[in-house]
Specification:
The protein is α+β, with helices and mostly antiparallel strands. The chain has 4 domains: 96 residues, conserved putative lor/sdh protein from methanococcus maripaludis s2 fold, CATH 2.40.420.20; 103 residues, Beta Barrel (Elongation Factor Tu (Ef-tu), domain 3), CATH 2.40.30.170; 53 residues, RNA polymerase II/Efflux pump adaptor protein, barrel-sandwich hybrid domain (OB fold (Dihydrolipoamide Acetyltransferase, E2P), Beta Barrel); 76 residues, Helix Hairpins, CATH 1.10.287.470. Helices cover 31% and strands 34% of the residues. A hairpin with a 3-residue loop joins strand 18 and strand 19. It is rod-shaped and about 145 Å long.
Length: 384
């Protein structure tokens, strides 16, 4: 009986111990709110860029084409070489044209001999007519023959000059200084005026043109944004523009928009502009591509760090911090962007606080312990 009472008391003690442990576990304190950096949002002046795809061409692109036909004897330059004005580029076989020059010279001599013969006849008949030995009709005929011989001399000399010009065309020289493009022909090729391809293209690139197109909607935005009564006035008032190269680097020299086509190209639905850039160091070459960046100053927009946003179905959101430090996801209306910021006019307001980092650990209604960041110090790290 005593053993039974001791065993019962032991069971009660174990049950009370287990119950006490369960109560202690049920009343364990909840974990503290996450400590996350929070950034106040305020409006700021920022420069944004309107970007357009561009193709680069030398200010002067000269197609080198033969003026006479013949076999290509020599190529004096290499593709990509820099050449100066007047430098020999190609040599066409000149033997046929040299023969034409010699033949023309012989024709000139023969014509001059005929001219002299006709002149002698005129001089012989003149006194006979004066003395009325013969009629003046014979003298007129001799004079006409002399005039014809004189004309034949002029014609022969013109043909000789033309033959000399053609002979000169067999040596093709650079009309401008610049860089040699691709040379599709080799020594021995038959070339002439009818070729679809030029012998090469010489690009003068001390200055280059960047051609870019605006769609109809972009053009209308352009005309509304920039001051001026006419398109010419608006273009003249544009600030210097930047050129972003294919590797995303910015060309170190700014350009100026100076030309616009008069009408839209229906085939591409765009109107073409042209910007000119200095290229004294010859960093840019014809044929490369890039992006024209037209700067625009913006006031009153709210800069939101891109690293503080998250994306859902192609829409951009941030977490704002409200009462009781609860966070709420809000969609942003983005007007433009810089390298590091979205520029926003709707979704958040000046004075709102957003979660700067750690958004992946949050859901709507989460409570955080905010650590306020200074916007001024952030802008020094991530300038607009």
């Amino acid at each position: 009986m005593r053993k039974y009472l001791v065993f019962s008391a032991l069971l009660v003690a174990v049950a009370l111990y287990i119950s006490g442990c369960n109560q202690a576990q049920g009343t364990q304190a909840a974990p503290p709110p996450q400590s996350l950096p929070v950034l106040p949002i305020n409006s700021a002046a920022a420069t944004t860029f309107q970007e357009f795809s561009a193709s680069i061409e030398g200010k002067t692109n000269v197609e080198i084409r033969p003026q006479v036909s013949g076999y290509l004897d020599k190529i004096y330059v290499e593709e990509g070489a820099y050449i100066t004005q007047g430098q020999p580029l190609f040599k066409i076989n000149d033997r046929p044209y040299d023969a034409q020059v010699h033949n023309s010279q012989a024709n000139v001599e023969a014509a001059k001999a005929n001219e002299e013969k006709a002149a002698i006849e005129v001089r012989r008949l003149t006194p006979l007519v004066e003395n009325k030995v013969i009629s003046d009709e014979q003298l007129k005929a001799a004079q006409a023959a002399y005039d014809a011989a004189k004309a034949q001399v002029s014609q022969a000399e013109a043909e000789g000059n033309n033959a000399g010009i053609n002979l000169g065309y067999t040596l093709i020289k650079a009309p401008v200084s610049g860089y040699i493009g691709r040379i599709p022909f080799k020594v021995g090729a038959l070339v002439g005026k009818g070729e679809a391809q030029p012998l090469t293209v010489v690009s003068e690139i001390k200055e280059v043109y960047a051609y870019f197109g605006m769609s109809e909607s972009d053009f209308l935005k352009f005309t509304n944004k920039f001051p001026g009564k006419t398109i010419d006035e608006k273009i003249k008032g544009l600030p210097p523009v930047e050129l972003q190269l294919a590797d995303k680097s910015i060309y170190p020299y700014k350009g100026k928009i100076e030309l616009m086509e008069g009408q839209f190209d229906k085939s591409i639905g765009a109107i073409t502009f042209r910007a000119i850039f200095p290229n004294a160091e010859r960093l840019l070459r014809s044929g490369i591509t890039g992006r024209i960046r037209i700067p625009e100053a913006n006031d009153g927009l709210l800069p939101v760090p891109q690293t503080s946003t998250y994306e859902i179905q192609d829409k951009i959101f941030v977490f704002t911090v409200g009462d009781s430090n609860k966070v709420t996801g809000k969609q942003l209306h983005i007007v433009s962007k810089t390298t590091d910021y979205y520029l926003v006019d709707k979704g958040v307001q000046a004075g709102d606080k957003i979660v700067f980092a750690g958004m992946d650990r949050l859901t709507d209604g989460s409570v955080i312990s905010p650590q306020i960041l200074s916007a001024d110090s952030l802008f020094k790290v991530m300038p607009l």
